[in-house]
């Protein structure tokens, strides 16, 4: 089975759903000596199968696949009262209605039960023999973890605090991705309703290191070699980068997203529930300013409701209504090939 110490360089290319994580990006990170990742959140099993085949054609090395844990499969789910949840989603729907109507589109009916093809993707991964399967947004059961062990996959779980880390290891996780408060994109709290912690990543790594024995991958806000040294010193076995890879030629991020990262009129990032109903960090834009205050804790419903707006904005290359996921170090993302970004983390 894959272990993190097999890597030439202790770096993981973050799974980034919604386009950025192409087979080309995953393979480029792996071929540079790190661990590339496919992002299979918000993807069908068929699309994942295709991405696996394409990645295998591009690299003989190890890579991972990341999937989202839906509420029904999350052993640490901590959900809002269903009636309050439905009412809050309806209120948010009303807030969005004028914007969607102005674009000549209709708001979809929210479906709290949608589980992102969980069973089909797990079935595929149980037979795929990928080096690493990682989980985000929740705690997979011990039986799910052990079924992936049977096919030879190492299992990783993304955690944001010590308690989540201990629960994941108790359920059989071989590897933890410890995600800190500066991470670009979604925070992977196992609870839907909890406000994510703000413990700085090096301290969080030390906290988790003190509680569990498995290897740790530190993620969130990494901007260069000094962060790598600090996190490895704190007890991490590898680091994970997302934002720094977004503008690479291998990244499939929307062009408007790539352009916004280099646009000086975007000056900061905000953690918001406005786009998906889960906390996530992105470039501060008009949509975030308008909707953060009233967006409910309701994933996947909010994600479903905002999708027409996000897709229309991306097609129109309008960054003000897109989810421009990124960490605060976004201005350091360059158009360099991913291999150069990976190697650059170890240049001093
Ligand atoms: C555009 C984008 C999409 C992301 N999508 C995922 C995802 O699908 N699964 C996941 O586990 N993490 C996802 N993340 C979070 C990353 O795994 C990682 O925690 C984060 O990128 C690290 O912080 P950094 O962006 O500051 O390097 C995403 C991050 C970004 C920026």
What features would you describe in this structure?
By secondary structure, the protein is of the alpha/beta class. The chain has a single domain (4-344), classed as TIM Barrel (Alpha-Beta Barrel), CATH 3.20.20. The chain is built from twelve helices and eleven strands. The strands form two sheets. It has an eight-stranded parallel beta sheet with strand order 1-9-8-6-5-4-3-2. Strands 7-11-10 form a three-stranded antiparallel beta sheet, with no helix packed on it. Helix 6 packs parallel to helix 7. The longest helix is centred in the first third of the chain and has 21 residues, at 82-102. It is globular and about 55 Å long. The structure holds flavin mononucleotide. Flavin mononucleotide (FMN) binds next to strand 7 and strand 9.
Quick overview:
By secondary structure, the chain is an alpha/beta fold. Helices cover 36% and strands 14% of the residues. An eight-stranded parallel beta sheet has the order 1-9-8-6-5-4-3-2. It has a three-stranded antiparallel beta sheet with strand order 7-11-10, with no helix packed on it.
């Amino acid at each position: 089975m894959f272990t993190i110490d097999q890597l030439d360089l202790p770096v993981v290319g973050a799974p980034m759903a919604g386009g950025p994580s192409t087979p080309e990006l995953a393979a480029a990170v792996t071929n540079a000596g790190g661990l590339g990742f496919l992002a299979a959140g918000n993807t069908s099993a068929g699309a994942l199968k295709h991405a696996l085949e394409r990645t295998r054609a591009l690299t003989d090395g190890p890579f991972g696949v990341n999937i989202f844990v839906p509420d029904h499969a999350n052993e640490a789910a901590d959900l809002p009262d269903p009636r309050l949840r439905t009412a809050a989603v309806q209120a948010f729907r009303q807030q969005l209605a004028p914007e969607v109507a102005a674009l000549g589109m209709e708001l979809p009916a929210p479906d709290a039960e949608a589980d992102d093809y969980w069973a089909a993707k797990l079935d595929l991964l149980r037979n795929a023999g990928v080096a690493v399967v990682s989980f985000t947004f929740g705690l997979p059961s011990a039986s799910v973890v052990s079924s992936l062990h049977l096919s030879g996959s190492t299992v990783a779980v993304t955690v944001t605090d010590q308690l989540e880390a201990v629960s994941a290891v108790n359920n059989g996780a071989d590897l933890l991705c410890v995600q800190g408060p500066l991470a670009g994109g979604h925070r992977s709290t196992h609870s839907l309703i909890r406000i994510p912690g703000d413990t700085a990543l090096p301290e969080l790594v030390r906290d988790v290191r003190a509680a569990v024995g498995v290897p740790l991958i530190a993620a969130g806000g990494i901007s260069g070699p000094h962060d790598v040294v600090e996190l490895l010193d704190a007890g991490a076995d590898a680091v994970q980068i997302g934002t720094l890879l977004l503008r690479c030629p291998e990244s499939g991020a929307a062009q408007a997203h790539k352009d916004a990262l280099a646009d000086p009129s975007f000056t900061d990032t905000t953690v918001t529930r406005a786009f998906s109903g889960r906390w996530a960090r992105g470039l501060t834009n008009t949509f975030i300013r308008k909707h953060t205050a009233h967006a409910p804790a309701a994933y996947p419903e909010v994600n479903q409701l905002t999708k027409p707006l996000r897709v229309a904005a991306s097609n129109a290359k309008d960054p003000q209504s897109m989810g421009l996921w990124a960490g605060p170090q976004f201005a350091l993302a360059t158009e360099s090939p991913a291999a150069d970004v990976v190697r650059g983390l170890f240049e001093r």
